[in-house]
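Records of this kind hold a single protein each, on a pair of labelled lines. Below, a sample record shows both lines together.
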Amino acid sequence: MAMKFEPIQLPIRGLVEGYVDGDENGVTGYAGKLIIRPPYQREFIYAPKQRDDVIHSVMNGFPLNTMYWVKRSDGLFELLDGQQRTVSICQYVSKMFSVEVDGIPRKFGNLTVDEQNAILDYPLNIYICEGSEREKLDWFRIINIAGLELKEQELRNAVYTGKWLTEAKKYFSKKDCPAGDVGGDYVNGAYLRQEVLEVALNWVSASQGMSIEQYMSDHQDDNNCNELWLYFQTVIAWVKATFPHYRREMKGLNWGKLYETYHQQPLDPETLEERIKELLIDDDVTKKSGVYEYVLGGDERCLSIRKFSPAMARSAYERQHGICPMCGKHFEIKEMQADHIDPWSKGGKTTAENCKMLCASCNRRKSAV
């Protein structure tokens, strides 16, 4: 069936009645009849200013955007869109924070009775929606396009809900979560936006030759996320043991892939560290974060070695009279490519004196050797 929509107005006092924030055990309001944070919803991510703006809008009688609730078969409702506004309102009425009024911070309990009633009587515009699970999630995507765009992992969480996901979010999706203590210096992403969870899932799923979606589907009904958490810790422990000297260039690398590729090889941290130091001060290395993968595997493409400038190439071309030194044939400059005389890997620098011009065919053959 197609989604059905019924518009209603609800005063804030009805919304906040029986408000309970049990964290992972659930967030409810509307006398226990509204599930404020169902499984597919993101964590509360409003910054203090955004949260305060919601309260100021209510105090001034300004209209808030329409909220969407889904009616369930058991008679309860799930908050489809409007969680950030809803939680902001409920937390303020529950005296959990203050906002400035005429330059003075005031909690809900510090307001006059008339001011409190003005907030509690404020009418919220809500659409009550009915539809299938698929329609509900599709609509959730649509109505979030104009707002704070959903991250891919937030959308995956909407599909693969259950005890396993609840446990995984405890480790990877909370402020000051265990994953931050263990590997926060080595991964990029916002915990509340599920980006660190996505990194961990990408590592473990790739190690098993599957997609994140397949991994989540396989483990959706598990009672714990021990495999995911232990794998994440194992990868980070290997990184710290292999590269004990931390540098900011280490943050955000695909350590899961590097662990799978090299963790069984005998590696000497001291030897690696000396080579890393050399590479970090080498002006020809333009991608410093690539030095870690390079010292493990030796692929120069990781480093984005500085290219010869057009002036260097022209100088070498004229010096060679347009002759390729490998095949001995003459070419136009546009048919040739600049290359190192002494290879960079053997200490050659990207300078005019170390530049030679090869025809495209010879340069390809040389690179393939």
